[in-house]
Design brief:
Length: about 160
């Protein structure tokens, strides 16, 4: 079995319900959810003129490969009504692979660990809540250390 950390985000519709629905489908099609962070309301990153996000990080035990995990998460997003128009646009649901075991994958369609982890408080705050001492396999720093060094000043508040 593999361990993966997944960031869930939503800023359209009933945001908490979207996160709950995503967790239900992850549990059904990906594997057992071992841990969940609290839900955080966060300012949008990249495009500021849109509703605030609710974000949560989950730790999942899965038998899927990284590529199969990505495919499954994209299918879950589609099932929950995700529409892709432009980068960083508002969305009903967003599922991002943060870590997958200690793997490092750098391909055009799959990058693990997620390249933006050290730059985004909306990712690091919930990640630190459940995995503060997890070490980033490329940067060789804990999530806690990455959060302390993060330059992002956007608001992240527990719901």
């Amino acid at each position: 079995m593999h361990q993966t950390y997944i960031l869930i985000g939503s800023n359209l519709g009933h945001r908490i319900q979207q996160l709950e629905d995503a967790c239900g489908l992850v549990a059904m099609f990906v594997g057992d959810i071992i841990q969940k962070s609290s839900i955080y309301e966060t300012q949008p990153w990249g495009v500021s003129e849109q509703p605030h996000f609710y974000n949560q990080v989950i730790k999942v035990e899965t038998s899927l490969s990284p590529h199969d995990l990505l495919t499954t998460l994209l299918q879950i997003e589609e099932k929950l009504g995700r529409e892709r128009s432009k980068k960083w646009d508002a969305r009903k649901i967003d599922l991002d692979i943060l870590y997958f075991d200690k793997l490092i994958i750098h391909e055009p369609t799959l990058k693990i660990p997620h390249v933006e982890i050290p730059n985004r408080r909306f990712t690091l705050v919930p990640l630190v809540e459940i995995a503060a001492d997890e070490v980033h396999p490329l940067l060789h720093k804990t999530n806690q250390e990455l959060l302390e060094a993060c330059q992002d000043k956007l608001t992240v508040q527990k719901v």
